[in-house]
Automatic annotation (TrEMBL):
Protein's recorded name: site-specific DNA-methyltransferase (adenine-specific)
UniProt-listed Gene3D superfamilies: Adenine-specific Methyltransferase, Domain 2, Vaccinia Virus protein VP39
Entry EC number(s): 2.1.1.72
Keywords: Methyltransferase, S-adenosyl-L-methionine, Transferase
GN (gene name): dpnM_1
Highest taxon listed in the record's lineage: Bacteria
Biological process annotations from GO: DNA restriction-modification system; methylation; mismatch repair
Sequence similarity: Belongs to the N(4)/N(6)-methyltransferase family.
InterPro entries with a match to the protein in the record: Ade_MeTrfase_dom_2, M_m6A_EcoRV, MeTrfase_D12, SAM-dependent_MTases_sf
Reaction catalyzed: a 2'-deoxyadenosine in DNA + S-adenosyl-L-methionine = an N(6)-methyl-2'-deoxyadenosine in DNA + S-adenosyl-L-homocysteine + H(+)
Signal peptide annotation: none
SUPFAM superfamilies noted in UniProt: S-adenosyl-L-methionine-dependent methyltransferases
């Protein structure tokens, strides 16, 4: 059943795809920090330079009615394409998602489903289609049916996650897609380097930064949201940008890994952000091929 526009205004939106590094668990901590920096009845602008799956974005849109202008950005062109399609072409997207979901459900066994998945992965990687709606259908299908719901590309930029073997995964969540579409109408969507977002800040602006995390141990590196790495030099460049945000009088919140989880002598972030407030919070790793590596760890929330 299609939700009417008036009904959708009361429906909370949530991330429309699973994304490594998603912040669902930290949302209460982040919202608490936002509350401490922005009064509930005070109008403000919200900028998220690394939007990813949008867990914090949608929590802000669901919970802070005074938010006036919202800017999101990400370096990943496929992800930003999906945001734009949901914002501008959600009805066509839903029709096509329902069709691919039905085609997948009608396959007789896992072997046929795996072949279907691999064919769609090849099609997605071929970039032979110029239709953003079709490409978004493939992206969401692969995200809902791949192993662990993981988005990962190799050095050539090709999606390479294997089949997930799930029984009837929900590929088309119509109600949520409509809710996301409703909320995105007030959102400006950018694709590119995070520094461009400063051009959109004015008046009372809050930045939330969720960059690719610094690996907490050598074997835990996951830098394949894009084919480029977000290494220590990039972490330092981000901090220099955050200094500009702070000096301009804007509020910010940053989340990142706590490298002290496995090396108590590692002061990388403590030294880098020594002039700001650093809070350590517990989180649970969700996306990991090793189930026993999904335990609690500490993460950082940093703000001015």
């Amino acid at each position: 059943m299609t939700t009417s526009l008036s009904e959708r205004k009361t429906v909370s939106a949530k991330p429309f795809l699973k994304w490594a590094g998603g912040k669902t668990q930290l949302v209460p901590n982040i919202l608490s920090l936002i509350n401490s920096q922005i009064s509930q009845d005070c109008q403000f602008n919200y900028i998220e330079p690394f939007v990813g799956g949008g867990a914090v974005l949608f929590s802000v849109l669901n919970n802070f009615s005074p938010v006036q202008k919202v800017i999101i950005n990400d370096i990943n062109p496929d992800l930003i394409m999906a945001y734009n399609v949901i914002k501008n072409n959600v009805k066509e997207l839903i029709v096509k998602l329902k069709k691919i979901q039905q085609d997948f459900y009608e396959l007789k066994n896992l072997e046929e489903q795996q072949k279907f998945f691999l064919d769609k992965r090849i099609e997605f990687n071929s970039r032979s289609c110029d239709d953003d709606i079709e490409k978004t259908v493939l992206l969401l299908f692969l995200n809902k049916t791949c192993f662990n719901g993981l988005y990962r590309v190799n050095s050539k930029g090709l999606f390479n996650v294997p089949f997930g073997k799930y029984v009837k995964p929900l590929i088309c969540n119509e109600e949520n897609l409509l809710a996301v579409n409703h909320h995105l109408q007030k959102v400006t969507i950018l694709q590119g380097d995070f520094v461009q977002t400063l051009n959109y800040a004015n008046n009372k602006t809050l930045f939330y930064f969720d960059p690719p995390y610094k690996p907490i141990k050598k074997t835990s590196a996951f830098t394949s949201y894009t084919k480029e790495d977000f290494n220590d030099e990039e972490q330092i460049r981000l901090k220099q940008f955050i200094d500009r945000v702070d000096q301009a009088g804007y509020k910010f919140i940053l989340s990142n890994s706590d490298v002290k989880n496995f090396d108590s002598d590692n002061n990388f972030f403590d030294d880098l952000y020594k002039d700001y407030n650093i809070q350590r919070v517990k989180a649970r790793r969700n996306i990991n091929s090793q189930g026993n590596n999904r335990g609690e760890i500490w993460e950082l929330l940093i703000n001015n």
